[in-house]
Write a structure and sequence with these properties.
The complex is a heterodimer of chains A (484) and B (253). Chain A is 25% helix and 34% strand. Chain A is an alpha/beta fold and 484 residues long. Helix content of chain B is 39%, strand content 28%. In chain B, the strands form three sheets. Chain B has a six-stranded mixed sheet with strand order 6-9-10-3-11-12, with helices on both faces. Chain B has a four-stranded antiparallel sheet with strand order 2-1-4-5. In chain B, strands 7-8 form a two-stranded antiparallel ribbon. In chain B, α6 runs parallel beside α7. The chains are: A alpha/beta (484), B alpha/beta (253). Adenosine-5'-triphosphate binds next to α1 of chain B. Chain A: This is Fe-S cluster assembly protein SufB.
C-alpha cells in the first residue's frame, strides 16, 4: 500500500526546489482582466452553475465591494491592484474534460513529468488518489471510481455542484460565510475550482486523498475552494501540496477551505505549501491569503490541521477549529519557514463552544535571512465551554541576526472552568551544535537542515509518510544559503 | 610519513586575541597513541579544537599537517571527512535528531564526498548494533535525540560509539574518561583499544593516569600554559600522578 520509494523521492525532488522555470503554454481561454459583476457571471456561466450559486457569488461580490483589505497582520507589501488580474483561465476545451488520463493534454502530462509526478506514476502511488488542479479547472481525477464504490465522493467542486448540488448548497459557506473576511469574500465571488469530499457515515477512508496544486497561468489569481464533509463516525486524511514555476509577477492566491465533522468523525488535513517565494528580494513571489476553517459540529469529533509552510512571499493563514460538539478536539501543528525576504503571519484560532472541548497547538517557526515571521493565535473559551482545555506551544528558531520572530497570542476566557496554557520559546542554532555536526563530517547546509528538522520533528511526524519525506527535504531546500 | 605533524603551533582566541597555544610541536605516526596531560586551562581542549577546526580560534603561527596535507586549509567538515574525529569533552545536544539518524547522516556525508553510494540500511543497523553492544550502549539510546538527557557517562560512551562507526584515522579524545564509572572506564577503554591499529593515530587528553593503564600510550606530553614542557613514555604519567604540575611552574613562565 506504500508508494514506491522511487516515486516518493521523485515527488520530493520535484517539489523540493525551483529549478524548473518552465511555463506550460496550453492556450487558456480567459475572462478579460479585472473584476466586476460580469466577470462573476462569466465564471458562473462557464461552469454552468445553478442560479443559487450565481446569486451567492454575486452577494459575495457586492459585499466585497464594501470591504477593505485587512492591515492588522505584520506584513508589508505593495498595494494589490485587483483590477489588474485575470479571474478565470481554463485549459483548452474545458467542456470536454478528459474521461481518463489518456485524454489529458500531453502538454499537461509533460508538465507533471517535469514536476516529477506524471499521472501514470500517480496511479502507482498506492492508496493515494489525486485530484490534480491545473490552473483553475480540474483536468484529471484518479481513483474516483474506487472511492465512489465505497461511497466516498472526491471530485472537483465544480463537478460536485452539478452532481451533488444539495450537499454543496447545504455546506458551502457554512463554515466560512461569504461575508467572512476580505479574501474569503473575494474567493466566494470568483472561486474557480477546488476539491469536494464527502465521506459517508461510519466509513474510515483507507486512502489518503491528495491534491497537487499548481499555478500555471500568468497573472491568474488562484481562488481554490475546498469543502470536506466527514459524516458521523467517518475518518478521512486529506493532503494538499503545491508547487509553482518561476515567474516575475506577484500572484494573488486566496483559497478557502471548509471542513465539517459530524458526531465521532475525524478529518486530518495536511498541507505542504511551497508556492514560489520570489527571488532573494521577494520579487515575483506568491501572495498567499488563505482562509481555512473547520467546524467540529458533532460531539467527540476531531479536526487536525498540519501545515508545513515554506513557500510564498507573503503568507496570511490561520487554519482554525470551531469546537461546537461536546468533547470535540481541534489540533494545529505548524512548521513555518521564512528565508530571504519572505514574510509570514500565520497561526490558528481555536474557538471552544462545547463542553470539554480540547485543543492543542504546536507551532514551530523558523526565520532566516531578512525574513519576518509572526505567530498569531487566538484561543477563545465561550461561556458554555465547561471544562475546556487548550495547550499552546510556540517555538521560534532564528538563523542569523537579520530575521525576526514574533508571537502574538490572544486568549479570551468566558468560562471559569476552562484552562488555557501557553508556552513560547525563541532560540538560535548554536555554534556548538553546528560545529558538532561539522566535526562529524556533515556539511554546513546539511547540518542546518538536520538541526531544523529536529526542531520541527513534533510537527513533521504528524504528517503521512510520503509527505514527511517531502517535507523534510523542503526544510533543507528552503533554508539554502541561510548560514555562512 | 607522519599521520599528524604539529609544528610550533600558535593559536589565540578570535575574540580578544588572547594567546592560548604558544608553540606546540608534536608528531603522531600511524599506529601511535599520544597522551596529553596538563593542568586545567593549559590549552589541551584548545589544541584538539584547533586541530578539528572549531571556529573561535585563530592560528597565529606554525602548521598542522595531516597525512601530508595542510590540515588548516580545510574546513572543519572536510577535516572530519578526511578522517579527523574529535570526541568532545562536552558533547552537544541536538534536540529532535535521533542518534541513529545523526550517525547515518554523518556516514553518508563521508560516502557522498568519496563518491560512494549511501550505506545500506541493513548494513548500518548491523554495524551500529554490534558497536553499541561492545560499548554497552543500550539500543534505546540510539533512538533518542543526540545527547539529549544522556547522563555524563552515556554521553562519553556515545562519543566513542560514533568514533567506532565513523572509523577515523586520527582520533582526538578530550577527557573521554571523565564522568565514567570504573566499569564504564574499562568498557570504553576496551572500545578505544579495539580501534587501535597500524593506520590509526590517537591523541588522548586526560587528567588521570588510570586511563593510561587501560589505553597504554606510546608517548605522554605535558602541556602547561600553551606549551609542551615535557614528553616521555608512560612512566611520565605516573610521575605526574605522584608529583603534580608544580615542577613545571618555572618552565611555563
Ligand atoms: N571560547 C573561549 N572563550 C574564552 N576563553 C576560552 C575559550 N576557549 C578557551 N578559553 C580559555 O583558554 C584557556 C585554555 O582552555 P582549554 O579549554 O583549552 O583548557 P584545558 O587544558 O582543556 O582545560 P581543562 O583541563 O579544564 O579542560 C583557558 O584559559 C580558557 O578559559
Ligand atoms: Mg579541556
Amino acid at each position: 500500500m506504500v508508494a514506491t520509494q522511487e516515486t516518493v523521492e521523485r515527488i520530493a525532488e520535484a517539489t523540493g526546489r525551483y529549478k524548473y522555470g518552465f511555463i506550460t503554454d496550453i492556450d487558456s481561454d480567459k475572462a478579460p482582466k479585472g473584476l466586476n459583476e460580469d466577470i462573476v457571471r462569466f465564471i458562473s456561466a462557464k461552469k454552468d452553475e445553478p442560479d443559487w450559486l450565481l446569486e451567492w457569488r454575486l452577494k459575495a461580490y457586492r459585499h466585497w465591494l464594501t470591504m477593505r483589505e485587512p492591515s492588522w497582520a505584520k506584513l508589508g507589501y505593495p498595494p494589490i491592484d485587483y483590477q489588474d488580474a485575470y479571474y478565470y483561465a481554463a485549459p483548452k476545451s474545458p467542456e470536454d474534460a478528459p474521461k481518463s488520463l489518456d485524454e489529458v493534454d500531453p502538454e499537461l502530462l509533460r508538465t507533471y513529468e517535469k514536476l516529477g509526478i506524471p499521472l501514470r506514476e500517480q496511479e502507482m502511488l498506492a492508496g493515494v488518489a489525486v485530484d490534480a488542479v491545473f490552473d483553475s479547472v480540474s483536468v484529471a481525477t484518479t481513483y474516483k471510481k474506487k472511492l465512489e464504490d465505497m461511497g466516498v465522493i472526491f471530485c472537483p467542486i465544480s463537478e460536485a455542484v452539478q452532481r451533488y448540488p444539495e450537499l454543496v448548497q447545504r455546506y458551502l459557506g457554512s463554515v466560512v460565510p461569504y461575508s467572512d473576511n476580505f479574501f474569503a469574500t473575494l474567493n466566494s465571488a470568483v472561486f474557480t475550482d477546488g476539491s469536494f469530499v464527502y465521506v459517508p457515515k461510519g466509513l474510515r477512508c483507507p486512502m489518503e486523498l491528495s491534491t497537487y496544486f499548481r499555478i500555471n497561468e500568468r497573472n491568474t489569481g488562484q481562488f481554490e475552494r475546498t469543502l470536506i464533509i466527514a459524516d458521523e463516525g467517518s475518518y478521512v486524511s486529506y493532503l494538499e501540496g503545491c508547487t509553482a514555476p518561476q515567474r516575475d509577477e506577484n500572484q494573488l492566491h486566496a483559497a478557502v477551505v471548509e471542513l465539517v465533522t459530524m458526531d465521532d468523525a475525524e478529518i486530518k488535513y495536511s498541507t505542504v505549501q511551497n508556492w514560489y517565494p520570489g527571488d532573494e528580494n521577494g520579487k515575483g513571489g506568491i501572495y498567499n491569503f488563505v482562509t481555512k476553517r473547520g467546524a467540529c459540529r458533532g460531539r467527540d469529533s476531531k479536526i487536525m490541521w498540519t501545515q508545513v509552510e515554506t513557500g510564498s512571499a507573503i503568507t496570511w493563514k490561520y487554519p482554525s477549529c470551531i469546537l461546537q460538539g461536546d468533547n470535540s478536539v481541534g489540533e494545529f501543528y505548524s512548521v513555518a519557514i521564512t528565508n530571504n525576504a519572505q514574510q509570514a503571519d500565520t497561526g490558528t484560532k481555536m474557538i471552544h463552544i462545547g463542553k470539554n472541548t480540547r485543543s492543542r497547538v504546536i507551532s514551530k517557526g523558523i526565520a532566516a535571512g531578512r525574513a519576518d515571521q509572526t505567530y498569531r493565535g487566538l484561543v477563545r473559551m465561550m461561556p458554555k465551554a465547561e471544562g475546556a482545555r487548550n495547550y499552546t506551544q510556540c517555538d521560534s528558531l532564528l538563523i542569523g541576526d537579520r530575521c525576526g520572530a514574533h508571537t502574538v497570542p490572544y486568549i479570551e476566557t468566558r468560562n471559569p472552568t476552562a484552562q488555557v496554557e501557553h508556552e513560547a520559546t525563541t532560540s538560535r542554532i548554536s555554534d556548538d551544535q553546528l560545529f558538532y555536526c561539522l566535526q562529524r563530517g556533515i556539511p554546513q547546509e546539511d547540518a542546518v537542515t538536520l538541526i531544523v528538522n529536529g526542531f520541527c520533528k513534533e510537527v513533521l511526524q504528524t504528517l503521512p509518510m510520503e509527505f514527511a519525506v517531502e517535507a523534510q527535504k523542503l526544510v533543507g531546500v528552503s533554508l539554502e544559503g541561510s548560514v555562512g | 610519513m607522519a599521520l599528524l605533524e604539529i609544528t610550533d603551533l600558535h593559536a589565540a582566541l578570535e575574540d580578544g586575541g588572547k594567546p592560548i597555544l604558544k608553540g606546540v610541536s608534536l608528531t603522531i605516526r600511524p599506529g601511535e597513541v599520544h597522551a596529553v596531560m596538563g593542568p586545567n586551562g593549559a590549552g589541551k581542549s584548545t589544541l584538539s579544537n584547533v586541530i578539528a577546526g572549531r571556529p573561535g580560534f585563530v592560528v597565529t603561527g606554525g602548521s598542522v599537517t595531516y597525512d601530508g596535507q595542510d590540515l588548516l586549509a580545510l574546513d572543519a567538515d572536510a577535516r572530519a571527512r578526511a578522517g579527523v574525529f574529535l570526541a568532545f569533552q562536552y558533547p552537544v545536544e541536538i534536540p529532535g535528531v535521533a542518534t541513529a539518524t545523526f550517525l547515518k547522516t554523518a556516514i553518508n556525508a563521508r560516502r557522498k564526498a568519496a563518491g560512494e553510494p549511501e550505506i545500506e540500511a541493513l548494513e548500518f543497523l548491523k554495524r551500529m548494533k554490534a558497536n553499541a553492544k561492545a560499548l554497552g550502549v543500550v539500543e534505546d539510546m540510539l533512538k533518542r535525540p543526540v545527547n539529549v538527557g544522556f547522563s555524563g557517562g552515556e554521553k562519553k560512551r556515545a562519543e566513542v560509539l560514533q568514533m567506532a562507526m565513523l572509523e577515523p584515522r586520527l582520533c582526538l579524545l578530550d577527557e573521554t574518561d571523565s564522568g565514567l564509572d570504573i566499569d564504564a572506564l574499562r568498557v570504553v577503554a576496551d572500545g578505544v583499544n579495539a580501534l587501535r591499529g597500524p593506520d590509526r593515530g590517537m591523541l588522548v587528553i586526560t587528567h588521570y593516569q588510570r586511563l593510561l593503564d587501560y589505553i597504554v600510550p606510546d608517548v605522554v606530553h605535558v602541556l602547561v600554559d600553551g606549551r609542551i614542557v615535557k614528553s616521555g613514555d608512560k612512566a611520565l604519567a605516573l610521575d605526574l600522578e605522584a608529583h603534580g604540575y608544580a615542577q613545571f611552574a618555572g618552565a611555563a613562565a
